[in-house]
Amino acid sequence: MIKDLWYKNAVVYCLSIRTFLDASGDGIGDFEGLERRLDYLQGLGITAIWLMPFQPSPKRDGGYDITDYYGVDPDYGSLGDFVAFTHAAKQRGLRVIIDLVVNHTSDQHPWFQSARSDPDSPYRDWYVWSKTEPANADEGMVFPGVQTSTWTRDAKAKAYYFHRFMPFQPDLNTANTAVQAEIQKIMGFWIELGVSGFRMDAVPFVIAKKGADVKGEPQEQFDMLRDFREFLQWRQGDAIILGEANILPKKDLDYFGDDADRLNMLFNFQVNQALFYALASADGRPLAKAMRKTWNRPASAQWAVFLRNHDELDLGRLTEAQRQRVFEAFGPKKEMQLYDRGIRRRLAPMLGGDQRRIELAYSLMFTLPGTPVLRYGDEIGMGDDLSLKERDCARTPMQWTSEAQGGFTKSDAPAMPVIADGPYGFPHVNVAVQRHDRGSLLNWMESIIRTRKEAPEIGWGDFAVIETPSPAILAIRYDWEGNSVLCVHNLGSEPTEVTLSPEVEGPEGRVLVDLLTGHRSEASADGRHCLMMERYGYHWFRVGGLDAPLKRRVG
Question: Which of 26, 112, 29 is nearest to 63 (CA)?
Fold first, then answer.
């Protein structure tokens, strides 16, 4: 049954083992530390944990350069520690999804070392080679300004190898059926250890044809996604693949599959970028347009919606004028920007630490079509350390208490520096302090997550954007099984009065009950509601009231 799709109304929490909690005292987070904090995560209300890479790695790219797909990096513990963690998560009703980084390996991976050492190696064709430097070697870099080529000559191999990312991350030849079989084997291995799915890294690059003779537009091999999905569903029927694919809306169905037979979920980058433009400009119309453009997807498929993640905020899908507006609002200094396309800051400092604006941003994110994804530390408004290189500035350790090192570790030398100074330092921003403050962002976040889970219309239903006279007012109505929820947000810095109709037939539309406050709005004689929206205000209304009958759609 379609209602068994757990991911449709989930709340996902992304974290890095390395920076969450150190139980061993060596300055590096570990699985034992994460297991100790499962009750915290359960109390927060999240339903699924997304783990960034934790496999053995030289960590030249935050673990996205893997040397063994079947192990746990010794810094974080053992396979036994991993299984103990997934068992403890299952006991608390929490699912676990992990990163699947199979576009490339580390150049230290035994496969690559064998491939470069011997042209007759069984792993030679697992990578992409060229005897001469391809003419387009200076095109298609993922990290402009940092990366200079996508082909590097290996002296031992006496050939050039392809790397979409950095030279220490050689691309796997994913068109090779042996490589595809190995990817399936990797998925099957972790499924047996308690994983409920995978966040597949860099999906368009994984399925693209690779080679020196490939020119022009990317040539995707979508059958590969169908094969991965089919394998996963045979092994564990409710396991999912959440794809990272910053694509145009016209490609969405190619990745989901017309028959929902490819990816279960996709991150909605189009909506994410429009969301930040809405916050910067106080204009919700481009966001509404992005929502409509990306709504065409199979009923069993789902979008993942988010604000910030572990990478930079990519603004590449906005117009030049829109992009500059967001830069001016949230990342005006060059040191705040990255790769000529994005902002590398965390959300709280981007919004000036204004809790009202932070709440507005998250209220809006939680009421967008799809499944919400949170980044660790954002629930307490953690800041960033712009002195750290590139993306590392927003990957600092979790701030638990006002004790030394923010309670992250007992070591005096954490592997990643904890933010100690300024308004976002751990003496001011931490879990322990906010737990005892009824008005804290943490307590607000727990409440909003609980309310979001009690409004399945948002995760499951169809939506309609309700017309309002002000571009700063964004009103979205969700309908599912005869029930409706109306979410209204004021993106502007000034209070405003708005009159609107929920456009629900029958007497139900005459009463709106705010799910966040319990306040009621009674419609006027013409069926319209007059709402006073505070600056950066938001309301989640159940149409018909909390005592409205829960109807079911027939047919």
Answer: 29
